[in-house]
C-alpha cells in the first residue's frame, strides 16, 4: 500500500521536455481535407489534435472533475481497486518514471474496461465518488463515436473500405501463413484456437 500513499508532489518534479506543436485535425472541414490531414499527421509525428469533434465541453469537464475527485478519496476507499496484476481489467496502479539523473517519481493511474454497449461493465467500476459510473459511461460513448469516425477516414485514406475497422476485430482475417511461396490469410472461426506447429516441429520432421 506504500504506493497509494505516494505522489509526485513528494519528489522533485522533472524538468519539462521541449514542446512540439502537433498537427490539428478540424472535423468540420470537408471530408477530403480531414482525411488528408489525418494521413499527413500519421506520416509526420503519429500524433495529432482533434478539434470541433462534437463532444460537449461539459462532458469533458465532468470527466476531469470526477477523476480528480476519485484521486482525492481516502486511501481506504480506493484500496480495493489497487493491483499490480496487469491481467485485471479494472484496477488502480502506479506508473513509474525515471529521468537521466536516476530520480524516480510515480503517479497513480485508474484503468477501466468496458464492452460496447457498456451494459453491465460499469458495475465493476468504482462506485465512488457519486456519479463516476454515469460520467465515465457518457464520456466513453461520446469519444468512441469520434474514434470510430477517425478510423473510417483513415481506412479510406489507406484505400480500405470505410467500415474496415468496424465490429469485432477478432472476427476478421489478421493472421497470415507462408504457404508454397505465398502469404495467405487464415480464415477465423468463432470459439476456435489457432495452433501453430512452429519451427521446432518442422525441424524434428526433417
Q: Count helical runs.
A: 5
Taken from the alpha-carbon principal axes, the silhouette is: globular
Architecture per CATH nomenclature, i.e. the level-2 architecture: Sandwich
Number of domains: 1
Order of helices and strands: EHEHHEEHEEH
Description of the structure:
This protein has helices at 31-44, 57-71, 75-78, 132-157, 198-205; strands at 24-26, 49-51, 91-98, 104-111, 176-179, 182-185. The chain has a single domain, classed as B-lactam Antibiotic, Isopenicillin N Synthase, Chain (Jelly Rolls). 33% of the residues lie in helices and 15% in strands. It is built from five helices and six strands; from the N terminus they run βαβααββαββα. With 206 residues, it is of the alpha+beta class. Strand 5 and strand 6 (182-185) form a beta hairpin. Helix 1 (31-44) packs across helix 4 and helix 2 (57-71) packs across helix 4 (132-157). Strands 1-2 form a two-stranded parallel ribbon. Keywords: Iron, Metal-binding, Oxidoreductase. Pfam families: 2OG-FeII_Oxy, DIOX_N. Its cofactor is Fe cation. Residues 172-205 form the Isopenicillin N synthase-like Fe(2+) 2OG dioxygenase domain.
Amino acid at each position: 500500500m506504500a504506493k497509494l500513499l505516494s505522489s509526485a508532489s513528494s519528489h522533485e518534479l522533472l524538468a519539462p521536455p521541449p514542446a512540439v506543436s502537433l498537427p490539428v485535425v478540424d472535423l468540420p472541414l470537408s471530408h477530403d481535407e480531414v482525411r488528408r490531414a489525418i494521413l499527413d499527421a500519421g506520416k509526420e509525428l503519429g500524433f495529432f489534435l482533434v478539434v470541433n469533434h462534437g463532444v460537449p465541453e461539459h462532458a469533458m469537464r465532468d470527466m476531469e472533475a470526477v477523476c480528480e475527485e476519485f484521486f482525492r478519496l481516502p486511501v481506504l476507499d480506493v484500496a480495493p481497486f489497487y493491483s499490480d496484476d496487469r491481467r485485471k481489467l479494472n484496477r488502480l496502479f502506479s506508473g513509474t518514471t525515471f529521468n537521466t539523473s536516476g530520480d524516480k517519481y510515480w503517479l497513480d493511474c485508474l484503468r477501466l474496461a468496458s464492452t460496447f454497449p457498456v451494459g453491465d461493465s460499469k458495475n465493476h467500476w468504482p462506485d465512488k465518488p457519486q456519479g463516476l459510473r454515469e460520467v465515465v459511461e457518457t464520456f466513453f460513448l461520446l469519444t468512441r463515436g469520434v474514434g470510430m469516425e477517425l478510423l473510417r477516414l483513415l481506412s479510406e485514406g489507406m484505400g480500405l473500405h470505410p467500415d474496415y475497422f468496424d465490429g469485432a476485430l477478432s472476427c476478421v482475417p489478421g493472421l497470415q501463413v507462408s504457404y508454397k511461396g505465398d502469404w495467405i490469410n487464415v480464415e477465423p472461426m468463432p470459439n476456435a484456437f489457432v495452433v501453430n506447429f512452429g519451427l521446432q516441429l518442422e525441424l524434428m520432421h526433417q
